[in-house]
Every structure is written in structure tokens, then in C-alpha cells.
Amino acid sequence: MNKTLLGYVPNESPIYAVHPFVKLFFLLIVSLFPMFVTAPDWNIGLMFVIIIFMWISRVNMKTLKIYVPVAISMGTIIFISYTVLGGTHPEFELLARVWGINFYWERVRDALVVYFRILPMIFTMVFFLSTSRERDIIVAMRSVKVPFVITYVFAMALRSAGMVLEDFQIVRQAEQARGFDPTGKSLPYKIRQYVMYMIPLFALSLRRSEEFTNALVARGYAFTGEFSKVKRADYILTHYSYKYFDYIFIALIGIAFIALLIFRYGFGYFLVEQSWLMRILHGAVS
Amino acid sequence: MAEEIKTELSAEEIWTEEAGEKRSIGVIHIVITALLIGIGFVVGAFGSISFPLGFGVNFFWTGIVVQQVGAIWFGAWGVIAGAIFPFFSNAIAGTPFYVSLAYLPANAIQAFLPAWAFRRFKLDPRMKSGKDYLFLFLAMVVSSIIGALWSVLVVLKGFNLLTADSVPLFIWGWFGGNVVAGVVFNFILLRALSAVVIRTTAFVKKWWA
Lengths: 286, 209
What we know:
Chain A has helices at residues 20-30, 40-56, 67-82, 105-131, 134-143, 148-177, 187-218, 244-266, 276-285; strands at 2-3, 8-9, 94-98, 101-104. Chain A is mostly helical. Chain A has two domains: 2-132 and 242-285, no CATH class; 145-238, no CATH class. In chain A, the strands form two sheets. A two-stranded antiparallel sheet of chain A has the order 1-2. The longest helix of chain A is centred in the last third of the chain and has 32 residues, at 187-218. By secondary structure, chain B is an all-alpha fold. Chain B has a single domain, classed as Arp2/3 complex 21 kDa subunit ARPC3 (Orthogonal Bundle). The chains are: A mainly alpha, B mainly alpha. Chains A and B meet through helix 3, helix 4, helix 6 and helix 7 of A and helix 2, strand 1, helix 3, helix 4 and helix 7 of B.
């Protein structure tokens, strides 16, 4: 199994046949798609495509459970902000009036449009995080010639995030071993106790910064001055090369984006007014 | 009797270079930046997942501690880390890539203002006087107001994610989520660790070294 930023993916997953840059390119470009599409049908379609990619990549779908509360709370907030906080608009079509709150069709529709624009963007991000290892991000950055120092900082940051999580567990277990039990306590109490995690976490990280620095200096690393100009072998890149299908994927993603822009602005496609899903919903609630 | 060795630095001395003292950017500053991004990644994601309001706005954002305390101690390196790490923590918590990217100026300001206030007014990061508390609180409030206005009016409205009527809720959410978490953690953390940090080589007196 390979540990990715969001879980584990089997070694045999076909996603590892793809160059890491292709995944980064997918994230950067496909995240833009929903910004030009207001019809929820297309955005739901995009979500399905990403779910199929996750399934093909053998991503453990259970890791996605953490996003269920996020999706629900975000959906609720969007719905409330468009309906309860939506104000009074006599020009809109009133669907219902509950406890003095007007529910207009246009507001409900707009809430759904926004929600289904956000979800595919989140799915794209989750797909990237659940299939990418720390190393993949470094390779992707180096393959587009991002300067060594920036790549190195990113690599260290990702590495240290893992260490902070381990430290967090250690501190928590140490406190539990001393009898600390937050079960059944109030939220303010838990928040207050959270301070007890923060101080040791910071202290451990400060100590670690010294260790990191000593290790880097001992290996001859320098980010400024003459030594920083020494050309280093990009060892990690020697393990990755672009295959013919990587170029095909990059071209397909690029072409899909250009086609989207042409259809959107040239022919007026992907608009909410053309959404058959919205027409069905409107018919059902009117 | 030999002259007594001075062990306690004054607030003025903390930010002033001593005669003959030479400070320069070192590997440790790069490392500190990376580590702050790492801590912020974890701590910020905790807040984003636990108390979400939506689109990366939270009722209680613990990441503010790393952003502001980090920048007070480590100057521009803390500001850089404070601007970058929310991008990661928001991503993990389910904020779209380009929305997170657009939050960058807000996060940079939130990290920069308290750091600037401490350097400009020679405040003591060990929080020894009422002035230190007052100025830090003001810096937290002002930076969170700017951050909230940018994030909600420029980013979320720019991406057409909010109605005009729901703007106040998100502005209050961003502002309150940052200030409350800052009040809970910033003062305690500064009091607890500043005395140690100001004696390390990683501590930044000006902006870069």
C-alpha cells in the first residue's frame, strides 16, 4: 500500500502509471471547469467522472467519509444563506412561506447551482489528495522546474505535517496516561484543554527545527550564497519519465478545457436555463 | 565584585541588534518556514473540519495561532508560512483549490499585522505588560477585519458563492472564528514559549534575520 496525503492506495493502482505532473495538471485545470458551468447536470456529471477515476485508481472510498459532514454543513449553510437570509423579493416566484420566511424558486435554484459548483471542485481536490504521495508532489514540482528551495520547503512542510500528527498523538497519549479524559466534557472545556496540546506541539517543533537544520548543514545544503549555486542531481526525477499516455492525458485535459470555454462563450452552453434537472425540479415544486 | 551578568532582556533589546551582532538568513529560517507550514497544516485543518461555516470559513480557526505567533517570532518567514499553510489545511478540509488560493492575501495580512506591531512598537513577546496585550489584541482584531472583508467581499462574492444578504454572516464567522481562537491561544502560547524562542538562532529581530 502507498500512503497518500489522504489515505492509502494499493501499489498496483493504475494511477501510479501516470506521471505525477498529470495529476497536478488535472487538479489545476479540472478545478476550473465548474466556474464556467452553471447547469448542475454537467457538474454532477463531472463528479461522477471523478468518482469513476477514484474507483479505477482503487482509492479506499471510506476515507471520503470525513467529507460527508463538510458536504452536509456546506449544503445547509448555502441553503440557509440563500433562503432564510435571502431577503424579500416580490419579483421572484414564491414557493412557500414558513414561519414568515419566504422560499423563492430563484433562491432555491441559485443555492443548488452554487452547491453543485462547489462539490466537483472539492471532489477534484479530494481525488488529487487521495492519490498523491508527498513524493508525487515534489516530482510534479521539479518536473515543471520549480526552484529547488521552494520544492524543498514544500517537501519538508509535508513531512513535518506527518511528524506533527505523530507528536499530537504522543502528547495526547501522555496526557491520557496521566488520567486526562475529555469524554463527556463541555466544548469550552475541550477547547481550553486544546491549549495543552499546542504548547508541547510548538516546543517539539522548535526543537526539531534545530535537528533539521543540523542535518541539512551536515549534508552541505545551503539555500543562499555560493554553495546554493552548486547544481545538484535531481535523483528523484530519474525514477519518473513521461510515457506516451501522459502526453495524451495532458492534451485531453487541455482540449476539454478549451472546448468548455468555446461551448460556454461561443454557443452559450452549460447555463442553468438549459438544465433539464432544474426544469424537473421546478415542475415538482411549483 | 564582578559586574552582574544581565540575563533579562528588555522589550527594546529583544528587537534591537546588539553592537557587533551580525544576523543573516540561515538554513534554520527555511526549516522554520517549512515546520510552521507543517504545524499550521495540522492545526488549521483541525479547526476547518471541526467548526466549519463553509468555503474554508470557520467559527473557531485554530490555525490563526500559527499564523500570528509564528510571524511575531520569525518575521517574514512566519508571514510566508502563515500565508501558505491555510492553502493546505483548507484543501484537506474540502475548500476548492482556487478559493483557497484567493484567500492568500487575507492570510498574509493576518500574519503580517501582529508581527509588524511587535516590531514597530517594540512590544515584548513574553507579554510582560498591559501594552503588549492591548496592542496584540488590536492587531488581531484589525488584521481579522481586513482578512474577513477580503475573503468574503472579494473572494466569496467574486466567485459568486454568496448572496448579499449572507455576507454579514460570513464576515462575522471569519472575524469571530479568528479573534476568539486568537484570544484563547495567542497570549498563552506567547507567554509560555517566547522566553525560550527569543534566545534561539531562529528568532528574527527585523524581518528576515
